[in-house]
Write a sequence for this structure.
């Protein structure tokens, strides 16, 4: 105990003196995509920063500098990139639909953000629609909000109305996570109402109201199951929740059975069967697979097959985080990755791709180790390990300082 305390006291002043110096950091290293409405414009703070304050610069992914374009694009003194609202005739793909990155530089070195996809979305006319439906008393009815494919990515259902009154999901009314309206145990009086969806544009904030659709309700008649809603494929991040819809009409009411990769569903509290579909919470990579939903009544059956892909986001850890050592030392940087495999690693020093030479080598099965032998003062700087897999990118960096030795034996390495 005494010894530990002594060592801590002894080592603290030294570590302190070094750490008070300069540092670089990321304000937001998950920022990789910015979509904005052309009528609103966008303000993007540089995701990288430094202390004491760093010089922040924006570039295009091609390496080209960003220049100010009056009333179109401006980089503020605080490193914030601003793209102003613009009319369709002023659209310039180099400015409004391109990959950018930002760098932060101070005496510790220079780091760069991952590429950030910046994309403008135009205001375009569109309407949303709901089709009339038929159902049997006691059965289920499904209304879908039909959004044109050109804007599907940005427009989502925010609510449903029954006779212009917002529907609160309860009793027989359900709103699925994909914006569908389900009515269970359909009653004759459901035919007296009109049903509309209300949507909102994610970037312009505009809302739209659909036409009013009607439901015609008939008396139950024996019939085989017919699918009303299902899914083909879903890609979701680990840890999130997914709802896989599967619902059918038919009389008697069909029973629903789920099969994953040829087996019944695992008995796990993360899996819940609801009228709106199969809900899986806290998703894990092993939940990926082929799902079959089978609906059966006494007159027959129907089934749909869909695939679920759970992606584990890439995470990168570079060690050591910070290293101050004598000139002539051997420096080893290890880039550890977690998440889905099949990535490509790239190394940067002060935002330039590391070139292998007499001093520097890149080793390991996937280039995960950077080795500097007999390191020179010029090898000081910020080293970054970037890992890319499909559209995912993750990075971590390390500040290396090489200084003249005072008491050490030439050629030996120090921690
Ligand atoms: C970081 O960026 C992500 C992706 O754009 C965003 O969702 C998140 O709110 C940002 N976080 C901060 C602290 O700005
Ligand atoms: C940077 O400056 C601009 C313009 O003055 C301002 O709108 C923005 O909020 C500032 N951003 C930060 C991160 O301070
Ligand atoms: C390692 O890096 C070299 C170039 O530096 C590249 O040619 C090679 O494909 C990389 N290997 C892997 C597994 O990424």
């Amino acid at each position: 105990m005494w010894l530990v305390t002594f060592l801590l006291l002894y080592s603290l002043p030294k570590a302190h003196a070094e750490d008070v110096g300069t540092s670089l950091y990321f304000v937001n290293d998950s920022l990789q995509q910015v979509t904005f409405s052309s009528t609103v414009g966008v303000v993007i703070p540089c995701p990288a920063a430094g202390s004491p304050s760093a010089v922040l610069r924006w570039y295009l992914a091609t390496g080209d500098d960003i220049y100010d374009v009056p009333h179109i694009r401006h980089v503020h003194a605080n490193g914030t990139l601003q793209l102003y609202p613009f009319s369709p005739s002023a659209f310039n793909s180099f400015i409004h639909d391109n990959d950018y990155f930002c760098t932060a530089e101070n005496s510790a070195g220079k780091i760069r953000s991952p590429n950030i996809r910046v994309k403008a979305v135009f205001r375009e006319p569109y309407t949303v629609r709901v089709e009339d439906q038929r159902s049997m008393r006691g059965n289920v009815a499904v209304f879908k909000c039909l959004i044109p494919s050109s804007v599907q990515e940005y427009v989502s259902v925010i609510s449903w109305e029954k006779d212009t009154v917002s529907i609160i999901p309860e009793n027989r009314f359900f709103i699925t996570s994909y914006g569908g309206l389900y009515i269970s145990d359909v009653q004759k009086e459901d035919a007296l109402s009109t049903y509309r969806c209300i949507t909102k544009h994610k970037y312009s904030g505009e809302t739209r109201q659909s036409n009013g659709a009607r439901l015609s309700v008939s008396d139950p008649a024996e019939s085989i199951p017919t699918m009303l809603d299902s899914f083909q494929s879903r890609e979701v991040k680990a840890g999130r929740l997914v709802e896989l819809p599967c619902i059918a009409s038919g009389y008697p009411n069909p029973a629903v059975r789920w099969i994953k990769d040829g087996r019944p569903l695992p008995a796990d509290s993360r899996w819940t069967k609801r009228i709106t579909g199969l809900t899986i919470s806290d998703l894990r990579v092993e939940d990926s697979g082929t799902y079959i939903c089978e609906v059966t009544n006494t007159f027959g059956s129907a089934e749909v097959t869909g695939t679920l892909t759970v992606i584990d986001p890439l995470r990168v850890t570079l060690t050591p985080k910070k290293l101050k050592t004598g000139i002539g030392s051997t420096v080893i940087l290890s880039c550890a990755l977690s998440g889905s495999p099949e990535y490509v690693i790239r190394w940067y020093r002060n935002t330039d791709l590391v070139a292998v030479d007499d001093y520097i080598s890149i080793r390991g099965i996937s280039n995960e180790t950077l080795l500097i032998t007999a390191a020179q003062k010029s090898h000081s700087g910020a080293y970054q390990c970037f890992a890319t897999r499909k559209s995912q990118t993750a990075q971590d960096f390390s500040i290396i300082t090489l200084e003249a030795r005072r008491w050490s034996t030439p050629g030996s390495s120090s921690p």
Q: What stands out?
A: The helical segments are 2-19, 93-96.
